[in-house]
Each structure stands twice: as C-alpha cells, then as structure tokens.
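hey team, just a heads up i'm posting the complex here instead of the shared drive bc the drive is being weird again. everything in one block, sequence lines first with there labels, then the predicted structure for the whole assembly after. its three chains so it's a bit long, scroll down
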Amino acid sequence: MPHRLKSILQDLDVVVILAALLIVAAIFKASTFYNMSNLFAILELSAVLGIAALGQALVLIVRGVDISVGAMMGLAATLSAYLIPDLGIAAAIVLPLIACGLFGLCNGLLIEKGRIPPIVATIGMMWVVGGLAGSISNGRLIPIQNEAFKQIALGSVFEIVPMFFVGLLVIGAIAYLVRSNFAIGRYVYAIGGDEGAAYYSAIPVGRIRIAVYGVAGVLYGIAGLLMASYVRSGMPALGKGYEFKAITAAVLGGIALSGGRGNIFKAVMGAVILIVLYGVITAFAVSPYVQGMIQGLILVGAVYYATRND
Amino acid sequence: MTYRLELEDVTKHYGNTRALQGVSIAIPAGKIRGLVGENGAGKSTLSKIIAGDIKPTSGTMKLDGVEVPYLTPASARQAGIAIVHQWGDLVPTMTVEENIFLGNEIRGPFGALNKSEMRNKARATLRQLGVDVDTRLPVSQLSPAHKQIVAISKALMKQCDLLIVDEGGVSLDKKETVLLHSVLRQLREQKVTIIYISHLLDDVVALSDEISVMRNGTLVEALNGKDTTADKLAAAVVGHEIRGSTRAAAPVGFDDRKSLLDVRGLSWANDGSAFSFAVREGEILGITGPEGAGKSELLRTVFGLMPATRGTVSFNGEVIDRRSPRLMLERGAAFVPEDRFVEGLLLNRSIEENVSLPHVGLQGNFFLGRKLLRGEATRKTTQIRTKMASIDAPVKDLSGGNQQKVVISRWLEDSYRLLLLDEPYKGIDIGAKDDINQEIGAMAGKGRGIVVISTEFAELIGLVTTLLVVVNRRIVATLTGDAITPHEIVRYYQYEVETPVPSSEAAHMSPAGH
Amino acid sequence: MQLAMTRTMTGLQRYNQLLLLVIVLVIAGFVSGGAFLRPANLILVLASASAFGLVSFGQALVVVGGGFDLSVGSLVAMSISSVVFFQSDLGIVGATIAALVTATCAGLISALVISRTKIPPFIVTLGMLSVADSMSWILAAGQPITVPDYNDSISPLFDSIPLGMNVFPIVVLAVGFVATSLLLHRSKWGRYIYAIGANEAAARIAGVPVMRTKLLSYGLSGLLCAAAAVVYLYQNISATPGEGSDYLLLSFAATILGGVYMYGGEGSIPGVLVGVICLASITSALTIAGVPPSIYQGVLGVIVLGVVLLQSRIRK
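-- predicted structure starts here --
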C-alpha cells in the first residue's frame, strides 16, 4: 500500500538524521566520540531527556504544552535526596513520583476546569513546584550517599547500555503498546486531533486530558530521579531548561504542536538525536555558548518544516 | 399512540441569540421524518439537542413516552440515539477504521483492541454504501463524499433506535445517494426511526414519510411526504409571502452603466472551473446555490483572501492581480465575511472600536481623534438602525442581527464603491434582515455595486437585479427580473447530483465554504 | 437582575486591578510588620520595579497583540553583554545605542519570522531566546561584566536629593509607562494591536497592517529590554552573563496580574503597572520579613494561579 510505505518512510527520517550524525562523528572525531565513557554518558542522558520528552509529547498531543517539566524534575530529585537518609530507597522513589503525579493532575485541573491556558497554568505550577523544592532543600544541593541509588546510574547491560536506557526502552515500549492496542491511546489522539469529534463520540475528554497531565508529571518525576542518580545529588535547579529541551525533542520526533499527531516513540528518538547532537558538537570542541543557539535554531527549523504545509 | 421521540417547547438561547424558540415535535417509531429549513433555521441545533451534544435552555424531551433528562453524547448513545453531523464527526488525523469505531471500539481479551474485526466490519459497511476505500488511510485524504460516507458508517455502527442524519447527502452523487437511501429504508424496515435533514428537497420528498419545516428557530409547517413536491416544499421553506413590498423597486437597465467589477475566467482550484461575471454601478448581484458550490471561495478569491489559479479581476477598468485585502480596500472594495465570529468581529472590544477599525489611521496623526471616531461610529451604526446600549458597549453583548450591522457599518462610506457580502443574513432576525436590505438598496441607489451571497433566497428575491445560481463550481444560471423565483432557483439545484467534481481536486474542497 | 449582575461584573473587571493593588499593599504591610509601608521603602520598591517593569510593558504589548515573547529575559542579558562588548570601541554612549539597536533588531527578526511563516510565536521567540542567550555569553566572553559608567555619570546629579540614587530608575520606568500607554491606548497602532489580538483574521479583512503592527510590538519589546538592561547596570553595576532569565517569568506574572488576557485582545498598561508594583511589593515585604527566596517563588506561583482562576471566573 503506497500510503503505508510513505508513512513508514516518514517515520524513518529520524533514523536517517541520527545515522548522519553518527557517521560525521565517526569520520571526524572517532576517538573523542566513540569511547565507552562518552557513549555511556550519551545513552544515560538520552534516557533522562527521552522520558521527559515522552511526557511532553503526550501533553502536546492533547494540544497542550508543559513548562513545568524542569521544576518537576527538580522536585523529584530534591525530595528523593531529602527522604533517602530517613525513609530508605523505596520510599525515596515512590513518594516523589506520587508528588509529581499529583502536581501533574493539578496542571490538568487548572487547564480543564479552571479554563486557564496551558502555558499560564504550567508556568504558575512551575513556580509553585520550584518554590516547594527550594524550601525542602533550603536552596542548597543535597548530596546522595545511598549506594543503591547511585548504582542505578552506573548499572549496565552488556557493559555499554546503561540501565537507564533499558528503562527508557521499556517505558517507550509500554507507551507504544498502550497507544496501539488500547482504546485510550486512540482517545488521546482524537482529543488532540478534533476535540469536538471526540466529544461527539462520547469520549470523556476532560477526564482524559487531566489524566494525561498527571501521567506526564510522573514521567517527569522519573526523569528527575534518574538525573539525581546520575549526578548523585538532588537540587531544585536540576532540570533547568528541560522543558524547552523536551519540546525540541518532541518536535524533532514529529509531534505536531497543534496536537493529534506524532509517533510517541519517535519523540524518544528525537531526544536521542538531540543528545547525540550535543555530544557531536562537544566532540568538535564547539563553544558551549553556541550549543544553546544551535538547539534554538533546530527547534525553529523543525517546526518550520512541520508547519510549512498547514 | 406512543411516539419514539417527543419534544415539547424546546428553546435554545446563545446569549442574546435565539437559535430555537418553543419547538414541539412528535415522531412516531419506524418512520422517516424529513426536516428542512434555510441556513440558521435551527435544524442542526435541534438535532444536536436530541443527540445530547448540546443542552436546551428549556423544554422537555420524551423517548417512547418516558420523559428523559437532558442528554449527553454518552447517555444519548445509551438511549439508542445516533447522529451523523453535518461536519466535525471525524478526526482528520486518524484513519478511516479508527474513526468509524471511535468511542465504540471492538475489544478482545484484556480489553485490547480487536483491530482485524474492526477492519473487516468497516470494510463491509463501506461496501454496503458502495464505497471501496483503504480503511487505513487518514480521513483527511478522502474526498468530501467519502468522508460523508465514513461518517454515516460510523453512526450505523452503533445499534440505535433513532438515527439523525444531518445533511447526509450533500457531497454525494446520484449513485451514492441512491445507496444511502436504500440503507435508510432498510433501517426503517427494522423499525429504526430516522430524522433526515437536508436542503436537497428532491431527496427529502423522495425519502420522507412526513416532513417538518423550520424557519427562524420555530417549526412552521408539517407536510405529508407523499402529497408534497419539491416546489411546494421550496415555497414552504421560503415562506409564502415574499417580503420586499416595502423595498424600492430594483432599478433596471444597466448596460450603459460603468462597470465596477469585471471577473473573467477566475478559478482558485485546478478543476477546470472558470467564473466570469460583472457588477456595474448601482447593480445588486445575488449569488445563491447549495453548500459546497464554491460561492464563498469565489468572493474570497476576488477579494484576495485566497490565491487564484487563473483568470483576472478588474476593478474600475484596472486589472488587479496579486490581490490582498489591503489592496482591495485601497481601491475601494470591501468584504463582509460569512462568519462574523470567526472573521468579522473583535468580540471583546467595543462597538466603536469595531466600527472604527478600518479608519483609525485616516487622520494621519499619531494620536486617535477619539471624539471624531466616536461621532462617526455613532452616525454609521444609527444609519443602519443598530440597537445598542452605548457605542462603548462590548460587541458580544449585541444580538446577532445587531452584530452583523456593526460589521456592515464599517463600510457605509460611499468611497467603498464595491461591497461584497457573504451570507449576511445568517442567524439574524427578520427585522435586521430588512434593515440590512434597505441599506443595500440605498447604497445601490447611490451608484455603489453590491454582491450578496445567500442560501436564503427569500432575501434576495426582490432585492437583487441579477441572480447567479452556482452549483458545483459553475454558474449554472443567470436570472434577472421576473425569472427570480424560488421555483426557478430550485430547479437548477438538481444539477448538483449530476455534475461530478473530479476526485483529485475534491479532496481539497474546504468544508467551510459554500 | 441579569443586568445588575453584568454591571457588577464589568465594574469588578475594571476595578479589579486597583482592588488587587490595595489588597497586596495591605498584605505586604501586614507581613512586614509595617516596615514595608515606610516612604523610604516605597521608593526603593518602585526603583526595584523599574527594570522588570520595562520588560513587562513590552511583553504586554506583544501579548495584547495575541503573541508571546519568550525571549525577553535573554534580550536583557544580551543587551548587558552588548554594552560591555561595544564599550571599548564606541564609548558608553555608543555602546548604549548599539545595545538598543541590537535588541530592537532581535525583536524585529522575531516579528518577521512570525509574520512570514506559520511557526507559532511561542516557538519563534523560544528560538530567539536561545540565540540571544548564546550571544550574551559570546559577547561577554572573557570579560567581567562591570559597567560603572551609568551610575557614575547619573547618580551624582541627584546627590542632593535623599535617596536620589533611585530617581533615574523611577524616571525611566515612568517614561516607559507613558510611552507604552500612549501607544496602546491613544494611538492607531494600539487599536491595531488590540484588533490583531482579538481576532487576527477579522483585523486582516478590515485592512489592518498586520505585519507592520507585529514588527512594532516585538521591536518595542526588544527596545524596552535593552532599556531595562541599562537600568539594571545602573543599579547593579556588574552582572553575570545570562543574567535576566528571571525577567521572563516576572514579565509574564506582571501581565497576568495586570489583567492582560493571555489569548490577546484585552488588557491595559496601567493594569500591568499595577501588576509590576504588586510583584515588587511582595518581594519587598517577603524580604523584610526574612522569608527565604525559594518560598517567594512558591508564593508567586500560588498568587498568579489564584488571580488567573478568579479572572477566568469573572470573565464567564
């Protein structure tokens, strides 16, 4: 079927870009780029951004946007670091995730019931969550001593693939399975694609939207916990800038800003591409100052490419 | 006798606009009820209330004799009611099979989707309606006709006792319409009650057992399907007396007058269509025709809101290509768009701001001459008899008719030699329609040229000097003088089902246009 | 009865900014144990409001016009670095002009991209944010950001007045306020901005010069960011590169508190001034009361969300 082929090819564009980046690195900076510790770090950070981008992608699909990503990551990290000494690792993982999920639900409620534009609601929530994290940590960094927690970042499969990345693949696979094989997956896309049509089809639009923000919150929390393990500490500013990175990753991965479209697994790929890109730029010893600019221009370029036919 | 559906005194207000007023209707089980009326008569609103999409402001509803509380889409479905909406039933980004089963999915073990069964059933239903389409295509890539059939299939998937079809036949050709009707008749055999809404009066007459006619939010007549002809129905829809006795007689003899607008071979699509017509000073040109015919696109292309693929537009003898709203306004042509909420009004701003908008820069100073602007705005809105609390009141508080007058007030200056109006009578009361028509007549009297698009041809009769009937992107008739009657106009609508639109271009037809 | 309700609601809408200000001032006075309300402190509050206040006026112009300017914080940072960068070649005056020009150009570029493509303003200004942020680092590279020139030249002029150091920031704020007020509320461009924010399609059909209006509002926003940079350097003399990201969030908070409707077409500059003063007052009161800065952020979030919810309710 020609349409099926076209759609598969469209999905492969991220793979092509990734391959191109990897080839460039191989040709010019093989030794700097292709060594164990560098590749490991790239995969680790891809996992962190990938999970955050997955949450942002879900929000984008229902025609929203989430600026509270970084703050939630910081809260999860801070809370976890704070709780570990007293409550142990299990609580230090579960409680922050619950907290982030609840704050995510707050986002959803503000947007759905309060009729507040997503950008305003999530910025407001960002401040609230950031303030909370700040008061927990008293503005300081909380080091994590717990060995088990630190091991999460160091664990690997076949020595090269971090546990983080395995976790990312698992979460991504679950997300993909749900999306493809359960009605809820279709409903989420329907709400973003045409809310009226979804409503006419007796889909509980409001409840699903609130739930999406809640799930996204939990995903941001997971990303924050991973990051905390990686840097072995918790602080509110841990996730700084991640909301914009997550949006860039999602858009690179083909998620439409207008909602209703995009393969969520590709959004994860977008995150991988972004981290690999940073890695390649660093290998070329490009000034770190320029990195931010490149990210911004990529985002604009990606959106331009996506919207040129609208 | 228990009726399948009974509505008693149903009313629906949107702020100051009355969409429905005291509608009472009773439909027996297992019958097909046709529902007809002009744009804005309230047919869609009524059907949406029955299907639970919107709630009425007041009134009661009974199903099989039992009163039911106001419905939601979910509770309506549980009550066995299904609806095919006119637009907006389908999610464009999702595939055919996903859409057909949206909200109604077939599940297997663990609640997972049974995709193969859905695919087979979707294919089967589509084939029953005579369509063979890859169900894995996204709906956005289908032609309007196929989209409509997919929407119909979606409704048919739900077991229902009451099916509402809102303009189900609009994009279909003769063959597809015949199939649709046979499916509906089959459903009737199975004791399904059907409400069939359409402006294609031939179809309604052929299919319905009884027909209800709506006008301006009320039910005005009930006719028997067997005794009625399309002509009688047209007269009922329009209303027996054609208002207009108070209007000045439309002037005649234009051939010697200066040509204001000259359109030659104009088209906005690559389907072989080409529009040619002229508007002279003092002439009022009407354009009517069924929905989807291309009337709106035509005017929008002339005004520069859409790019033309071929043809020329001349204004005052000067050919203008690369048209844009600003350019046309500079030349002296203005446009009143179809949907005042989407493209006409600045809803949260005041009446004065809305009326003054095109002219705020005219003094050339940095500062606004606020006193002057207010004076001008008051003068213009008064001229067209706008009823408002004050010139500074927010425009969203006005009734529909007065809102429309505000939009038109922008262009009352004689320096706008040409005024284009797209469906100015939509959703407004009779008094406002009369005021607007009076103003149009006065403008023409001063030598201005006016073009009015309307599907409510009652308003155009007695107003326009020439009437173009546009069907499927062609001008099928140019009527003048005594030939402008509902009978004549409706006669040309039949062309719609016989003239196919090439499918490659059909996919790009915008649903919102006429 | 219906009419009375509507009248009350409209009255509330018009006066809710003043009401908000009064409430905030009262709370601030209470929280700080009265210290907040001393005249000397009030002057300090006003002066502290100057820099982000200017940025907020620019943001308000853009938001009323239906857009967003996420780049404001980085434009302030870029302007600070521009002054440092150009100072050695052009002197302080030349450097100031260069900073004003570059920031304005950045705004114009954003407006151009927004007008000519279908990329949402959110994304375009986000891109500009990262470009300007990078520029602020690049321009300052290697040099400490210390610009005592503004303070040195202007401050002595007001030595005789008590707290004379605060005259300059307050005057600049006042000038910015008057200029943007006149633009938005008394000029044709203001009408155009409101129209585009309320309904861009309708504005276009009515002949409004959409692109030119956007160039104006985004360009002015850039200019005001540069002005804010000057005030900042006057007050703080030195800065770190990338300083200024707070201004983005503050400008949003001020516009929200000031009654500007996030989807465009509604809002006033005096309202934004009220929002600015409220924010500065809250900070001042919390600082006086010894509240740690992290709590301040949380309080800000709760207040902003609360106000928006209320506004949403009133709008219904």
